[in-house]
Amino acid sequence: MGLFLHMLTVLLVIMMVSLQGWLPLGCLDEERIALLQLKDTLNYPNGTSLPSWIKADAHCCSWERIECSRSTGRVIALHLEETRNEEMGDWYLNTSLFLPFQQLNILELWGNRIAGWVEKKGPSNLTTLFLYNITTYKSSFQLLQSLATFPNLTTLYLSYNDFRGRILGDDLQNLSSLESLYLDRCSLDEHSLQSLRALPSLKNLSLQALSGSVPSGGLCGLNHLQELYMDDNDLSGFLPPCLANLTSLQQLDLSFNHLKIPMSLSPLYNLSKLKYFDGLDNEIYAEEDDHSLSPKFQLESIFLSSHGQGAVAFPKFLYHQFSLQSLALTNIQIKGEFPNWLIENNTYLHDLSLKNCSLSGPFLLPKNSHVNLSFLSISMNYFQGQIPSEIGARLPGLEALFMSDNGFNGSIPFSLGNISSLEVLDLSNNSLQGQIPGWIGNMSSLEFLDLSENNFFGRLPPRFDTSLNLRYVYLSRNELQGPIAMTFYNSSKIFALDLSHNNLTGSIPKWIDRLYNLRFLLLSYNNLEGEIPIQLCRLDQLTLIDLSHNHLSGEIPPEIGNLSMIKVLNLSHNSLTGPIPPTFSNLKEIESLDLSYNKLDGEIPPQLIELFSLEFFSVAHNNLSGKTLARVAQFATFEESCYKDNPFLCGEPLPKICGVAMPPSPTPTSTNNEDDGGFMDMEVFYVTFGVAYIMVMLVIGAVLYINSYWRRAWFHFIEVSINNCYYFLVDNLPILSRF
Fold first, then answer.
1. What total number of domains does the chain contain?
2. Which has the closest alpha carbon to 54: 76, 39, 44?
3. What digits encode the pLDDT tens for the residues 465-505?
4. Residue 702 lies in a domain
């Protein structure tokens, strides 16, 4: 029994200790008092920040912007960024206010208009300090001087400050424990970065908004640096050779600059620990001698894209890489065939992008199945031939496949339907043909499907029964026929449906209202007929509707005015009749409204001038009457072409003035879908007159040929007429000559 009680006591002690990690705790009185003093300082002289910090509340760990340790109940983080109202003016911070917080590790103070420091005493245990956006050069200077208050800092955020002319290595030399330093957009130059080697523990350095060349003098001595981020700058020139001195470097980001980076990456061959290199959006060039030396590094991620010109060959160093996980070479004229050896050599490769690289020939699959490749983009190249039938078996782990803008022909391989993980399939702008296979609707993970701009014919896929996640369907610019008879298993997830530029017939299906989350509906350039279904007006999430260039008829449903999120509405080039619904004035978000080339009549609702977001507007080529809309706000910018070819419409910007009797127009315009030119087509008149003239002459000739009596009478008439004309001229010519 004694042993049992002893074991029970030990168990209870263990439970008490473990429960202490999650039981809610209050906070120490000394820290609560210090927090209230800090609040008063932030609110001096009359601020209202931090209303949840109440003196009567003993549980200060539940106050906003505070984190406490779950084991000790002490404050470990204060997130006081943008707390002070800037209209209250500058804030002179007393750092001694933080002394009671003995376990404070993280302190965020940026965005509070700190103008200076009252004392230079602070918690020695602070490891992470956020001091963005200190307002003036003077306060930035004082800021650097005060950092000695926090001698154990390991991470320091000083971005968005003005450190021009400061030698940061001298200012920060007391921070011997500093490992991560963020100096983005601090107006730095080569001089500012001198002596950074005085920070012996610095491992991570981030520099943005630099200009000129790479500041090698201040960086190349940091041979202990592991991560260097100089992305999104205005750097130019070649990579300095001294980068080879950064032998501890593991990650290097030079993306979004104007640097000249060799395709071989030869300046980095000595960096044996380098795993990550990002050179996106620079000028990638080919060296004259692409040596076959093997680099010391085994990269895991490479990102290169160019905004320059020039063709290069596949860099030889890639043949020596076997640890790649992500590789992107885009907008580089590499040329050659698809490098299937890259996939074969790098079994951990999961992302591969070779977009717009001028690659050609057939698409070559790896010899064996590669289960890790999940993202593949080879769009905008010159690949030809058929998509290999074994693609699904060789790349069974694909989640996204982009093969658009190539020259692929034939049909879609059946094996693609066996890739159960495929979420994105883009085969647009190729020469694929045949019917769209029905098994596409059985791909349960598919979210994005783009087969537009191909040569698919036949009917639409009838069923998408197991496509539970399908959101975007783009099938435009094909030769699809028949009615819209698609059915979706989970209609609520469809965001975009584009069936435009096909040969579809029938009417818009009444089940369209099942797609109640639909944002984009494009059915233009088809042969659809019938009225606009009232069910379409129930899709209150729609932002774009394009039904133009069809044979739709009937009146426009006034309920379209209830679609308050519409930004683009195009019903042009149809046979719509009746008035423009006044409810269109409810479309407050609309930016483009095109009702041209229809048979609409009546007046334009004056309420439309309330559409203040409208940038494009056209009601041309209809039967509208009355006045144009008032020339106010955005409608003052719409020209005559927006209203033209409405015979009974008047007012600016049309030349016809309202209330003035106008003579009948000699060239009335047509109210049909196309222009008729004028009142009389002169080309048709000339043809008709010529045909009639020839017919009359043929009839007269035939009569004279058949009837001899009429023939003699005709010739006698001609002879008498000639004689009369002769004697008339002889008798009257002397008289006429006097004049």
1. 3
2. 39
3. 677 889 999 999 999 999 998 877 677 789 999 999 999 99
4. no
